[in-house]
Predict the structure.
Amino acid sequence: MRNEIVWKVGGQQGEGIDSTGEIFALALARKGYYIASNKHFASRIKGGYTHYQIRVSTDPVYYHGDYTDILLALDQETIDNNVDVMSENSIILRDGNEESIEVKSRGTVITFPLTKMAEAIGGKIVRNMVSLGASAAFYGLNEDLFDSIIEDRFNKKGDEMVNMNKNAVRAGFAKATEYIDNKNISITPLMKPELETRRSLMIGNEAVGFGALAGGCRFLSAYPITPASEVMEWLKKELPAVGGTVVQAEDEIAGITMAIGAAYSGVRAMTSTSGPGLSLKTEALGLAGISETPIVIMNSQRGGPGTGLPTKFEQSDLNTMINAGHGEIARIVLAPSTVEEAFYMTAQAFNYAEQYQVPVIIAMDLSLSLFIQTVNKLDFNKITINRGKLLSDAEVEKNEERFFLRYGFSEDGISNRSIPGQKGGVHTANSNEHRESGHIDEDPVIRIKMMQKRLGKLAALKDPGFDVLGEKENDVLLVGFGSTIGVIQEAQKELEKSGLKVAHAHIKRLTPFDTSLTDYIVKSKNVFVIENNYTGQLRRLIQMECNTGKELVGINRYDGNPFTLKEILEQINGTLSKEGK
Amino acid sequence: MATLKDFKGDQPTWCPGCGHFSVMASLQKAASEIGLEPHDMGVVSGIGCSGKISEYTRAYGFHTLHGRSLPIAQGAALGNKDVQIIASGGDGDGYGIGVGHFIHAVRRNVNMTYLVMDNNIYGLTKGQTSPTSQQGFITKSSPKGSVESPVHPLETALANGITFLAQGFSGDIKQLNEIVKAALQHKGFALVNVFSPCVTFNKVNTYDYYKENLVDVSTFTNYDKTDRMNAIKTIREKNGLVTGILFKEDKPTFTDLTKDFPEIAIAKQDLNLDSTILEKIEKQFQ
Ligand SMILES: Cc1ncc(C[n+]2csc(CCOP(=O)(O)OP(=O)(O)O)c2C)c(N)n1
Ligand code: SF4
């Protein structure tokens, strides 16, 4: 018995690869397995090699795996592209009219007449169902594995469709069973999960949308861009029912500025984008900063710069997210590392934005945004709505002065807030430097006080800015942020197996940076900062914030693809052995 | 009931004689005449001399960025549809750096007013050529005369489906006041372009120039302001030098057409959701 499998389907874009992957993953999530996934795709709609890799495990997983156990290859290109990730025990199932089995050093290639079988049942459209049925058999799962999903998807189209799909699954299952029984294919069945429960399966962008909705967001304005559009699309579908709306803006500048306008009117508002859009939004980010308008910006990083690698993974917007914009503002940049965390952090982002009256950026990345993961039962009691110093109508009405002191000085630097429509709250929100009522004022004394107020506001933010697994004193400290959490966790486990003492710190807030990390750095013999960019943006940030003088070793990848566990281990072991440690 | 005085904000610092005074006065007067209260009104302005209107008018104000008043105003108008939102700025702000937003605001038709103070020049940055400057216009940035042909904001607005279009002149405050009042009362996106002379930097498009050249459409026999093609034709024929309400059409607004747009102003929605709603959404993912 095995506790996990890595399954992959590959072919040309437009051949139903996505839906096949989704059905496979959902079927297993419904049985209580944990899922992590990865997709390879190009910036085009039809054609071009694509694959969907799904790791199924009885334990929580956040990394899609180095190797593939079963590959459904819809074409030769898929086989060629995946030779390196197959192993001796892998199975490659390919479509072909001549049935055959070839045992190779990198797996057993089985050829089934998938298309023919599908055509006999109802047409080529059920070919993927035949292959799903075969997949189930190869891992000792049941032939009814996909039934509930087939029913959910096709009930509306009638019994005939439902039966056709179920029959296709069963045909594939029977064919694979025949091979297992008669042709000496040895299989290692997948263990049952500890708990047979339906787990949620989401992409990060849906989790951001859902977290926003739960966290009180009622307005989103955004411009389509990979890999961020799903936030807009999901909220467009869901926000109206809870009293909100979504506007597709004419560009990213309008995306953020409309959100700022909505936030000014008293709505919890956000925009969502990726690198190129973030670059366009920077002037308005400064406006949110100086006008102290609370907004949330989701930025899903992809390969930059310019148009860069639009459908590839990179973590190279860190500097931009924490620094973008002229002048100086206070901002918060949160970095979720799992889909589940994206839900809670997004909800929390709206509290931070209103409590501190600052822009909050949610730093996502393409893998986290687009690739499905299982999410534990969400705890909605954890979601609270704290609107900070936004005053009620009655409180605002008490003001008898001609102008409300929207930017009134206070001990914590955060001022009372009134919104249009509230009697007694009239003021001018301002992008120019201003006095307490919001009117332009360039007096140096006021300027100094306003700068100290705005830039001092976040001093009160004491929540932990990173998660750590392990002790302070270590042989090895691994540091990362975002979706690399899974592969780094596994690297930690592997290194521990070789007798090293290892800790893993994952940064969850990029600014304000939690400098208590310093202690871990100082007490660790070797520190590795693992990130997907060329210049080592996180490493440099830590150097600057923690200022220990200690050398941090960068492990960087910037070819558009996520790290493999193997390469991380090789780099770490290489460094350690060079140093003779 | 609020009086004109209630709408007076910070002390203006515009040059004496600047056309922007009249534009602001007409807005404040119109607001008081139609029974608005300062707290039910939001003035969102861009950057320029014109952008100062949100400083000098007592209402909820937002003095924003150069060229971005429109999306911010639309966000505010959608966020709280019970507040009367006015976006305002100059010709550079609206038809230069912000022209992309302008076209989309027209076609989006959110219920709000857009008040442009058009002085055919960049005032705040001390006199460069603007997108509405005539060809051959001489400034520090076009010492040999500007070579680009000017934008045509009125025709652009009409071509893109504007539902209320008017043009005024700072030298005719009575007409301007009536126009602004009608614009505020229009349901949908209303554009009021006002010739608002810059007495300091523009020695061509002066009060006298406009007095000589402008014609009021209400003096035309049978001007039909519901006829879009006729409005375009008239504007073309008069080279844009017409005033009055040029076009008006009653059409569903953005929020009317967005079938699921919330009935209650979004800013007034209760944000705490019953956990059964969230649990139902969670099930989608299983
Ligand atoms: C992004 C940006 N670019 C340039 C400027 C400089 N700037 C301020 S106002 C202005 C033009 C003002 O002209 P207009 O909008 O016609 O208004 P007016 O001053 O004439 O009323 C410019 C270019 C700026 N503030 N921001
Ligand atoms: S520079 Fe021109 S536009 Fe600016 S205040 Fe003076 S007259 Fe008015």
